[in-house]
Automatic annotation (TrEMBL):
The lineage of its organism: Bacteria, Bacillati, Cyanobacteriota, Cyanophyceae, Nostocales. SUPFAM superfamilies: Ammonium transporter (SSF111352). The chain crosses the membrane at residues 78-98, 119-138, 183-203, 210-231, 243-264, 276-301, 313-340, 347-367, 373-389, 401-421, 450-475. Pfam families: Ammonium_transp. This is Ammonium transporter. It comes from Nostoc piscinale CENA21. It comes from the Bacteria. Keywords: Ammonia transport, Membrane, Transmembrane, Transmembrane helix, Transport.
Length: 533
């Protein structure tokens, strides 16, 4: 019985195997038949296709594992660097704003001269700041001046931060971006300080003297006082705070501009019978365009000073900046309307800029309501500051001293008045997470922050006035800083550059009217009063 069962199983197994073999052979025969039906060219491709499939299989098995992607730290560095670069580009574009603003506020016959100064000054600033300025400002040294890092040379392992940083620019070890990004961002700030001077000395300074002074300012004067504050110098140790440069950039440029305007003296025709006479600018359209470009650039100037892509910090600073500028413009409009009888467009422009300058030092440390107050007072100050300097005999064609110096001082004081205190906002911490930051008088901080702010204003002002005075006196004794009376009356475009900004248009030549371009050769004696185009 058992043998019969075994024989039955064997027979069934043999039947199944025979069935399988028969089926397989049938499929092989069908495949051979299908191949025979193919054309010769298709049959020749079959071996090649088999080789390709085998090769791909081998490559898929033999390839090395894919490398690991960038870490979170790498992505943060890349994002921070991108933001710093974009902010630097915005600040650089402010040069176009200064070009338009100052040219529009000046007379037609000096347009080329103003444009040339604003264009070449950044090129000069780039070389001067790369060669010595950046090293003097941020290089390791002492509390007074940096003594390393000239020509951007020296050890540096950026973007390492804090204790991990090893290099000669320790003052910037708080920002985790490459050294090139640090330099680029600080460079555009230095160029801004030099450009401020251009407007105050416009329409009567020799072109070569302005170039030399710009080199000295960006290469020596600006870095020395900047080192005291942003280079971990003695003012920073004392507790002086200036987030984006109300003092470091704007007041320094304002002090230098004030001394330049004082040494040059007023333009011909500015004062008659001991009264200041308005010499209106020739194109308020481009002056307004310049204001708007500067307003845009300030969103790189202030938020970019975070030097990191911190969304909370950037957006808060952008809001305080915009609010102060807007309220400054409104305040200047209303005050000028009441004080002067008309809503003067030039005052509206300078009011906006005044509010932006005023908020620059404290933009990261104050609330939105505080920024409104800061902008409001800055807009009022600039309206009264312009006639004040006129009464002192300081002829400033664009109001640079009123906007950048007066409101720069006000903005620096605002840190000691309105700052919310250490850790008041999430970004007000050091690399270790410890709360830091100024504490203003009106926020319950007493005079602990306000006093260092006052000392810093006086110290930076005193040093800038001293160095600027030396520079201007040396230039006056060697090259002479002012053009001749004939050149000033004819216009610096012809006298200094031999060309006109508006060739073929009527050109101002005398207080009595216009001549048909420079070819007439007629220069009237007497005052140089403007006529309305």
């Amino acid at each position: 019985m058992q043998r019969q069962k075994s024989k039955i199983k064997i027979r069934r197994s043999s039947a199944r195997n025979y069935s399988k073999n028969t089926g397989f052979n049938s499929k092989v025969k069908q495949l051979n038949l299908a191949i025979k039906r193919l054309s010769p060219s298709w049959r020749a491709c079959l071996p090649l296709a088999c080789l390709i499939v085998l090769g791909w299989s081998y490559v898929a098995v033999a390839q090395t594992p894919a490398p690991a992607g960038p870490t979170t730290a790498d992505l943060k560095i890349a994002l921070d660097t991108l933001w710093v670069a974009i902010a630097a580009f915005l600040v650089f574009f402010m040069n176009a704003g200064f070009c338009m603003l100052e040219t529009g506020f000046c007379r037609q016959k000096n347009a080329v001269n103003v444009l040339a100064k604003n264009l070449i000054v950044f090129a000069l600033s780039t070389v001067a700041f790369w060669a010595i300025g950046f090293g003097l400002m941020f290089g390791d040294g002492n509390d007074f001046i940096g003594l390393s890092g000239l020509f951007l040379a020296g050890a540096d392992n950026s973007p390492a931060t804090g204790d991990a940083y090893q290099g000669v620019f320790s003052a910037l070890n708080w920002t985790g971006v490459p050294l090139a990004a640090k330099f680029l961002f600080q460079l555009v700030f230095a160029g801004t300080a030099a450009t401020i001077v251009s407007g105050a000395v416009a329409e009567r300074i020799k072109f070569v003297d302005f170039l030399v002074f710009s080199l000295l300012l960006v290469g020596i004067a600006y870095p020395i006082t900047g080192h005291w504050i942003w280079g971990a110098g003695w003012l920073a140790d004392m507790g002086f705070w200036d987030f984006a440069g109300s003092t470091v950039v704007h007041s320094v440029g304002g002090w230098a501009a004030l001394m330049g305007a004082a040494f040059l003296g007023p333009r011909i025709g500015k004062y008659q019978d001991k009264q200041a006479v308005a010499l209106p600018g020739h194109n308020m359209s481009i002056a307004t365009l310049g204001c708007l470009i500067l307003w845009l650039g300030w969103f790189g100037f202030n938020p970019g000073s975070v030097m990191a892509a911190d969304p909370n910090a950037i957006t808060h600073i952008a809001l305080t900046t915009n609010m102060a500028g807007a309220v400054g413009g409104i305040a200047a409009t209303v005050v000028a309307w009441v004080y002067l009888g008309k809503p003067d467009l030039s005052m509206i422009i300078n009011g906006i800029l005044a509010g932006l300058v005023g908020i620059t030092a404290s933009c990261a440390y104050v609330s939105i309501p505080s920024s409104i107050v800061i902008g409001l007072i800055a807009g009022i100050l600039v309206v009264f500051s312009v006639p004040f300097f006129d009464k002192l005999g300081i002829d400033d064609p664009v109001g640079a001293t009123s906007v950048h110096l007066v409101c720069g001082i006000w903005g620096t004081l605002c840190v000691g008045l309105f700052a919310v205190g250490p850790g008041g906002y999430p970004w007000m911490v050091d690399l270790a997470g410890k709360p830091v930051g100024p504490h203003g008088l009106f926020a319950g901080g007493g005079f602990g922050t306000l006093i260092p702010q006052i000392i810093g204003i006086l110290a930076v002002g005193g040093m800038t006035v001293l160095l600027s005075t030396i520079f201007w006196l040396v230039l006056k004794a060697t090259l002479g800083i002012r053009v001749t009376r004939e050149e000033e009356l004819e216009g610096l475009d012809i006298g200094e550059h031999g060309m006109e900004a508006y060739s073929g248009f009527l050109k101002e030549a005398s207080p009595s009217g216009f001549s048909e371009g420079p070819s007439s050769g007629e220069i009237s004696s007497g005052g140089d009063l403007p006529s309305t185009l």
